[in-house]
Amino acid sequence: MPTRPAAHGTLYVVATPIGNLEDITLRAVRILGEVDLIAAEDTRHTKKLLSHLGIKTRLLSYYREKEMERGAEIVARLEAGENVALVSDAGTPGISDPGAVLVRLARQAGIPVVPLPGPSALTAALSAAGLEQPSFLFLGFLPPQKSQRQKLLRSLVSCEHPLVCYESPQRIQGLFADALDILGDRRALWARELSKTFEELQEAPLSELHALAAGRKNKGESVVVIHPGHASEPEGATVEELLLWYRDHSGLSLKDACRRLAADLGLSRSQVYQQALAIWDSRG
Ligand code: SAM
Q1: Residue 147: which H helix or E strand, with range?
Q2: What class does CATH assign to 122-226?
Q3: Are residues 64 and 34 in contact, defined by beta-carbon separation less than 8 angstroms?
Q4: Ligand 1: which atom is nearest the Cα of residue 199?
Q5: Averaged pLDDT in 10-residue chunks for the chain of 284 residues
Q6: Closest C-alpha to ligand 1, atom 2
Q7: Whose C-alpha in 91, 152, 218, 232 is 20 to 30 A from the C-alpha of 102?
Q8: Architecture of 11-119 per CATH?
Q9: Is the dihedral of CA 233, 239, 240, 243 positive or negative?
């Protein structure tokens, strides 16, 4: 009779709090206590959470620079029948955090991967953003280099979905400045320090958020939700002003801008087109 292969363990991908330690599910607490090993982005950080929960499970560090090497090691343990929980420092692993490599290796090895839903700064911010449209574009962290960040923002000028990104305290002001410059003065939600003592959610035009950030000493961890462009077309503007706005902020071609403007204002397309030609040409 062929020998049966040893049963594989399970890889649990466990969401942990993004600030407030009460934000953890009952299932996450049970699994963290039951598994043989917890793979953690920063073991010192996770130790604090575990000691708060009274959990003594062994920890192994699994961080960005060692994802491949540690991933293979963890998969070997899973193949040997150990159950492993993967956690990051905050929120859901794999969302702008390490995790993808281990999950992929585990799946390739035929190991069951079980996600435990829970906190994420992304869903927390979106849940309070009041977006009526069902779609959004999540960008994670924008590139730290200004030129790369600006290039990315330029490519998104005509994106019709709200843009959502993460930002660190050091770069939030730069993000507001570049977004204002390239996307125009759109409305945006700045969700900072979610679930923490100094939580603050502000919805305002980007120019106001930029000024607000300048006055904040501790800018905190942030999620920014930027509304699509059409939300900030200047109100009560003349056709010429609107054309200028479309030229500089919408990312639309002259033809598409004319089509949209003519439809919105009930004007003839050729009339708008003549005016647009002069404005587009005046760019030099
Ligand atoms: N995996 C995490 C998640 O599911 O939210 C995100 C990890 S990423 C390395 C860290 C970034 O998430 C921070 O720089 C910030 O942009 C955002 N973030 C994390 N905690 C936050 C909080 N309490 N309030 C606002 N943003 C937060």
Answers
A1: helix 146-155
A2: alpha beta
A3: no
A4: 24
A5: 70 98 98 98 97 98 94 98 98 97 98 98 97 94 95 92 96 96 94 97 96 88 91 72 78 77 86 86 60
A6: 91
A7: 152
A8: 3-Layer(aba) Sandwich (3.40)
A9: positive
